[in-house]
Amino acid sequence: MKLIGTDASPYARRIRMWALENNCDLEFVTLNIFSEKGRPTLANNNPARKVPILVDGDLTLGDSNTILRYLLKKTAKPDLTWPQEQLLTIVNACNDSLVEMVLCKRSGFDTQSDKLFFNLQNERIAETLSYLNTHLADDEFKSCEYLNISLYCLLDWICFRELTDFSQHSELVAFHEQYSKRQAAINTSPSL
């Protein structure tokens, strides 16, 4: 199996970390998605033009949640529960808003301006981080390896890209600090 992505993508990184922690053999192929060569490769493998992309024989999957479900089945591990899926949706919502803001900044927009789109993204980021801080100790969260990995990748990407300040969320800060010591986190660090 081959995973196509970028070193910095929190979505690709979560799959890489899960694979490392579960002895799931994945070849990681780094792709510069903004390069002249990378764009066609990305489009040929995923018309949505997003990473990560999993290629397993004739099967190509282009979404981290779908890839995880596939890997869980392939390795005979249990599916996420519906409450865990909901928590993952919240992690993804925060991550998606941050990605949108990064793309807007790279496009030259002032993301701090009083515009509906930016206001909604900033509100979603603040609210989801607050919600996750409050629910981090829930059994559904604590018992789900992939949720923990996904949250860590989100928080570490926030730090790596210097996107927002979550220092007021003490549970998230402690979680990030503790999880960063895991070998899979170290081996997949985007700063390497």
Structure description:
The protein is of the alpha+beta class. It contains 9 helices and 4 strands; from the N terminus they run βαβαββααααααα. It has helices at 10-21, 38-45, 64-74, 82-106, 116-135, 139-142, 145-161, 170-179, 183-187, and strands spanning 2-5, 27-30, 53-56, 59-61. The protein has a 4-stranded mixed sheet with strand order 2-1-3-4. A hairpin with a 2-residue loop joins strand 3 (53-56) and strand 4. The longest helix has 25 residues, at 82-106. The relative contact order is 0.14.
Strand order of the largest sheet: 2-1-3-4
Q: Tally the helices: what do you get?
A: 9
**Rg on CA atoms, Å:** 16 Å
Distance between the termini: 23 Å
Keywords:
8% strand; 192 residues; alpha+beta; four-stranded mixed beta sheet; globular; 58% helix
Secondary structure elements and pairings:
Elements: E1 2-5, H1 10-21, E2 27-30, H2 38-45, E3 53-56, E4 59-61, H3 64-74, H4 82-106, H5 116-135, H6 139-142, H7 145-161, H8 170-179, H9 183-187
Parallel strand pairs: 1-2
Antiparallel strand pairs: 1-3, 3-4
Helix pairs in contact: 1-7, 4-5, 4-7, 7-8
